Amino acid sequence: MDFALAFFFCFFTVPVLGDNASSKPRSCSDVRQFYSGKGFSLSGVPQTEISGEHLRVCSQGYTCCTSEMEESLSNLSRREFEGLVKEAGRSLQASLNAQYRSFDGYFLELLNGSERSLQESFLSTYGTLYSQNAHIFRDLYGELRRYYRGSSVNLEEALNEFWARLLERLFKAYNPQYAIGDEYLECVAKQTETLRPFGDVPRDLKLKATRAFIAARSFVQGLTVGGEVVRKVSQVPLSPECTRAIMKLMYCPHCRMMASIKPCTNYCRNVMKGCLANQADLDTEWQNLVDALLQVTSRFSGDASVDVVIYSIPLRISEAIFTLQENIMVFTSKVFQACGNPREAGTRSPEDTRKRPNAVVEAKPSPTSSVRLEKLVSDVTSKLREMQQYWVQLPNALCNDKVTAGAANEDKCWNGMARARYLPEVMGDGLASQINNPEVEIDITKPDMIIRQQIMQLKIMTNRLKNAFNGNDVDFQDTTDDVSGSGSGMCADDQCARSPRVIVPNTDRPKLYAYPAENKKVVKGTGSQIQPCVALLLLLLVTLLLRR
Ligand SMILES: *[C@@H]1O[C@H](CO)[C@@H](O)[C@H](O)[C@H]1NC(C)=O
Ligand SMILES: *[C@@H]1O[C@H](CO)[C@@H](O)[C@H](O)[C@H]1NC(C)=O
Ligand SMILES: CC(=O)N[C@H]1CO[C@H](CO)[C@@H](O)[C@@H]1O
């Protein structure tokens, strides 16, 4: 870099100096105007050009910039560039947020609609039997909402609990002439496994509902995690080397009185690729996340579309109740066989609580609802595709035609030293490709830790989404114990195959546990072998953090 600088200095700057050396010093009025326009004081700013040996970033020809001006402009260029990166991140976040809001609103309305239709139709069909037990259904919907919101609700257990409570209530209601205590009900509950009083409905509903809910929940989680990653990464401060490069790109032309000359496009790209090298390393995992989100999105429509499944809940429950009613004699006598005859309670004869559930018509999602779902899915899909390349496109986006001289002016652009063609080739994407970046000095062995951590978050979320796509419940789980273990966890499956093998240090420094809690939440996944892998990845991360 320094060598390159000296090289350019000799071959570009000196002849220019020579030309001008004998002539009258040029006025700094343009620079003064520009400088005060940026809000800086003009005191100490020269009226005419001065010799530039004091310059530390810009090349040292005749200049209008003092050391202090150079520093102020460096600071300014850092602030402006960080502002641009944040701004770009904010618009990506806004897009993710907008999708979150539209899906979330839609899904909660679906749930409300389903619950409302259950309340209305059950009240008219079952009357007091329903109204006395309405809380069972309210609780079910409450659990479904909480699960969707990301609480640690076990969906299967919540559904099982619902059926168990419903059975208790119905069994009592159909046998009012008996005094049925809690102990007896426990025995009744034990018979459900074999007697299946509700037929196939519980199993079938569990299958369909869990698929829909797992997909919905992981989808909104994915959008949230994506937004958080963007927010954190967009706030990563620039390195001093990057600040120098940006200064040279943006404001050295002013110091050299070439304010009207825009930077060469490739020059700008190299600066941005260098400055945003770590960010570009998010690319693979970001693309994976978007792919996984797209996959899960495809689950919302189609055969068992999410609206149909959720709207069918009242009808399915009603079918289950009907099945029990049809078989109540047989069921009761089998229960009596297994649990013994319950004590008679007075003379109350069974009232006819049995009603055919024909009043419970299938509440179908309205046509506008399915149109809305289709539009939602197609919007989300196109928006996600748009943002898939974000991290590698960012450098080019920041070197747009407004900023750079463009292809037409390749010979007459600011190349960092003079108004001339920019010769070096454009670097590739990512940190490893910056080893020969002529504009930004980077230690490619020192990746940015904030960004590494966010890459981890993306991996974890993608894995969760893939599980959701396959209908597997994914759960938060604390792996503190695994991390503090002997460190013998080795990758047993392809989850870790891509990550480098490391020798896990056998350390129990307390810093290990100061790790943010959110990172301890990992995917339970399909097999127990994933846990050691995640633990290993976390350890690798912690080790890197400690070494820093
Ligand atoms: C530039 O920024 C640095 C660090 O923020 C600060 O210490 C310095 O005073 C600033 N210089 C000028 C001239 O504003
Ligand atoms: C859904 O119903 C709950 C109360 O049951 C209410 O607080 C919420 O605002 C409703 N949401 C929508 C989207 O209608
Ligand atoms: C008077 C004179 O020769 N001025 C020249 C000084 O150098 C610049 C290039 O840096 C020329 O554009 C001027 O014509």
UniProtKB/TrEMBL annotation:
Keywords, alphabetical: Cell membrane, Disulfide bond, Glycoprotein, GPI-anchor, Heparan sulfate, Lipoprotein, Membrane, Proteoglycan, Secreted, Signal
Keyword match Lipid metabolism: no
Cross-referenced Pfam families: Glypican
Intracellular or extracellular location(s): Cell membrane; Secreted, Extracellular space
Alphabetical list of InterPro entries matching this protein: Glypican
Region (Disordered): 342-367
GO molecular function (one): fibroblast growth factor binding
Protein name in the entry: Glypican-1
Organism of derivation: Megalops atlanticus (Tarpon)
